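Marked as duplicate of an earlier ticket. Keeping the data here for the record.
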Amino acid sequence: MAAPALRATGTIAKSPDAFRTISEVATDLDVPQHVLRFWESRFTQIKPVKRAGGRRFYRPDDVDLLRGIRALLYVDGLTIRGVQKILKERGLRHVVMMGRGQAPAPYAAPPKAAPPAPVEKKPEAKKRPSHLRAVPSPMSLPFFDLMEDASAKLAEAKPVPAPKAVPAAAPIDGLAGEERIKLKALLAELEGLKKGLTQARKRVTI
C-alpha cells in the first residue's frame, strides 16, 4: 500500500473524497472561519456534517458549493440576495459547477404556463316577450276554416221562398229572418277576428 502524499507544508494530503474541517476549508478558500459560518446562516444549501461538539466536516460537494458562492460574491460582485436568487432560480448544481471551474449549463427560464383557451360563448337564444304567447307553426285555425266554409255555403244557398200567407207561420218567418241577420253579423265578427289573428301570426314569425 502506497504511503500518503505529503504537502509542501509537511502535512499529509487528503484524498479528494475525504471530508475537510472548517479550518482546512477556510485555508483552501482563503476565507475566515466566521465568514463560512455566516454563509451557512444565509444559504440553506450549505449543510456540513456536524459531529460531537459542533465540529463541522465538509464533503467535496460542500467545498465546491462554497467555492462557487465565493466566486459570485468576490469575483462577480453579487450581493447575498443576488446569490440566493441564483441558487433559487438556477439550482444548487449550477453554483457547484462554478466552484469546480466548469462551465455551468445555460440557464433556461421555467416555461410559462400557456394562457387558458378562450371559452366560446354560445349565442343566447332570443327571448320572446313575456306578453306574447307561443304560436304554433304552421298556425291552424280549424274553427275559422269551418266557419268560412259555412259562410260560403250560406251565400250559395238560394233563399227559400216564404209560404203563402199562413197566419200561424208569420211569426216563424220573422224569427228565421232575425236569426239569419244575427248569424251574418256573427260571421262578419269572426272574419274580423280571423284576420287579426293572421296578422299577429305574421308579426311573430318575422
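See parent ticket for discussion. The mean pLDDT is 75.
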